[in-house]
Fold:
Amino acid sequence: MSNINIVELEINNKNRWVYFSKNRWMAHVAYWIWVMIVGTILVVDVPLTPSIFINHFILDNLVIASFFYLYCLYLIPYYFKRGKHLQFWLLVAVLFFSMPAVDVFFNKTFVTLSYHQRPNTGFLDSYFGSIGGFLLNFLLFSMMLFFMEKNEEGHTLIELEKEKQEIEQVKLDMLKTNISPDFLMRSLSQLKQAAIAQDDGTPESILTFSDLLRYRLYTNRRQHTTLQEEVDALGSFIHFIELNHHRNNLKINFQIQGTTEGKGIAPLALINILEPFCKAISNQPVTLAMILLIDDDNLVLEMDYSLRAGETLLADLQQYGDNYHQLYGNCVKFTFENCEDNRCLISLTLPVTPAQHDHL
Structure:
């Protein structure tokens, strides 16, 4: 079975049983109890025996009940909700005018103890009387289905909002934990080589790299982090790169203008944008100038990469922009371009929120 058929089957089942799910079947029970009280208990003037109950309630309402449930279990889900409105109304009209005739024939042939029967009435009188009963009950039944639909719409909106929040959380978690395997393996390899060579800066590199990984892990479930925490983690990242400058040929100049106090930001937004530059190792020294401009509503990160970005770096930057646009929409502005003087300029604008301290 194809995916399309599975989805279509699921939609059909949802549409078909919408009037019975979430305890809505109780409304049907209440409706038929009301019919039994009004049409049977209050009408008959003899004791309500099983025979009276079967003939006067069950058999008397069998045809109209068939019409009702054919209407809500088949016509609505398979025609009306699929946009086949002309066919839907034609079938409803055919059934509405033919089922009373079936009801008259059924009652005269099989129902023997019904107080609704008039032995001396002709077919047309009985037929038009049956139409009147069908119309009244059909209007009441349709009103009940309408309120069920409105109730289902409310439930659907709540479920969609919940699913949207879950999807956003999954996206956020993926971005937070989306550490580049290439960067991770290269960093571990550099630490191993430094340890073998007994480099004096190896312990500090290990501690700095551990701080960076710890920050990733502990911000995994946060919606926001304080801007100061993010800037501190970015500083640790830059320091780790500087400790391995002789291996990656990357030098970073980082400046901040504005205050981080009382401000929040999406976790790892600044960390993730730096990773692609660690992946793009150059054979010659290269400088990345970073200026972080902070105001009350936004922060702007201007980056000047002193080398023309290659295809891999451009692809990584494009992926970064796509991810954060998908997650935060138009609140994120991200542009990058290679310049004629063989530089690459990158600009990132992110929304700033009041600082929120999440407790993990």
About this structure: The chain has two domains: 3-172, 181-354. Residues 123-177 form the longest helix (55 residues).
